[in-house]
Amino acid sequence: MKNLIIIIALFLTSVSSYGTDFYVAPNGKDTSTGTKDNPLETVKRAQELASAGDTVYIRGGIYTMRENQIASYQRAYAYVTELDKNGINYFAFPNETPVFDYKNIKPANYRIVAFLVKGDKIHIKGIEVIGVQVTITTHTQSECFEVLGNNNTLEQIKMHDGMAIGVYMLSGSNNLILNCDAYNNWDSVSEGAKGGNTDGFGAHLKKGSVNTIFRGCRAWFNSDDGFDLINNAEAVVIENCWAFYNGYTSDFVSRGDGNGFKTGGYAKGRKPYDDVIANYSPIPKNTIRFCLAVGNKQAGFYANHHLEGNYWHNNTAYKNRVNYDMLNCLALNPTDFGTDGPGWNHELVNNLGFAAKVAELANIDKSRCILKTNYFDSNNTAVTASDFVSLDETFLTAPRQADGSLPNITFLKLAPSSKLINSGTDIGFPFKGKAPDLGCFEFDGKN
């Protein structure tokens, strides 16, 4: 009898581990049961029915969102869909593309958030968010995704052709933003249409919100920056990401700041010193590695008046105004914390750049930084066009691979004859040959 009880318990455990599947479709009804043949209309209703371990499959098509679907109004925000239950998957149905369109949601004087991710262990994959609006004419922002929870994954999500920030991280630990795209986003309503708050991806985390990673993401034609880590209290890792043409609209009209990777800073003295110490100290050192910055209006890689150094490893910059700008504030003390000075305490290893419009490297105190085998180090020869297989920028927007990873392109990959191959320093990542290469693309012998 004891063995029988154990067998039954194991069976029930294995059954429950699979979870229940729910379905949402553009022609669904929230009065339905949520089965494949009787789908629901909204993700909101699917969440109400689902429990931890369940999966909500979202069928392809256009979901034209309505103002009566707004889940809550809190302070200055209108949250359209709140995901606050733990452990639920929200997946695009295989080989289909669900597109959530927010063009009709325009509540006056509210910042609009398409998805508020408050729960933990939530996985969202394969959807698109378009047309998120801005209605406030003074300083403001809207967001496609705001993340507050822990252990969440946003994967293969496209956020485009709207006025909002793509992903906006405020709190929570162990969150992964994987293989997502944010593009063609410009706030044409607030502050004279300059678009100065519309970044592709942003992490502005509170203390204790650790282990945030952006991996395999692209940001282009966002009217402010591609990736922004201003007012961030914990270290963030950005790896294998691309940022290009930020600071412009899609027809190359100049708008906001326009940095590819803006990595740190605390408003350059506009916050009281005591507030900086209380909310952000010890100042984090962020990591940007194996990333690509092309044609951004200002810097490709930018320290943004940071009060500490960052780790910059194996990055590639091309045709930015300045390819690498390490501008810091002078020191973390009451006198100097708001005064610009050359960058200090940065670690730059194996970085590559070419054809900057104004400067390859700016605002750095080399004597106070660690510099190893970068293209701008004196022991390396000049970089030329012949070092690359291709300089064709159209490859940057190529379709992703079947698994969602970045396209395998020849743009800025090293030519077989390049002296930049095997000229780097081993910093613990896999490489081919006798030493790592410079830049974000390791030569594979086939380029």
Automatic annotation (TrEMBL):
GO terms for molecular function: carbon-oxygen lyase activity, acting on polysaccharides; metal ion binding. Residues 21-356 form the Pel9A-like right handed beta-helix region domain. The keyword Secreted applies. It holds the Pfam family Pel9A-like_beta_helix. InterPro entries: PbH1 (IPR006626), Pectin_lyas_fold (IPR012334), Pectin_lyase_fold/virulence (IPR011050), Pel9A-like_beta_helix (IPR053868), Polysaccharide_Lyase_9 (IPR052052). It is found in: Secreted. The keyword RNA-binding does not apply. Belongs to the polysaccharide lyase 9 family. This is Pel9A-like right handed beta-helix region domain-containing protein. GO terms for cellular component: extracellular region. Its cofactor is Ca(2+). The lineage of its organism: Bacteria, Pseudomonadati, Bacteroidota, Flavobacteriia, Flavobacteriales. Keywords: Calcium, Lyase, Metal-binding, Secreted, Signal. Residues 1-19 form the signal peptide.
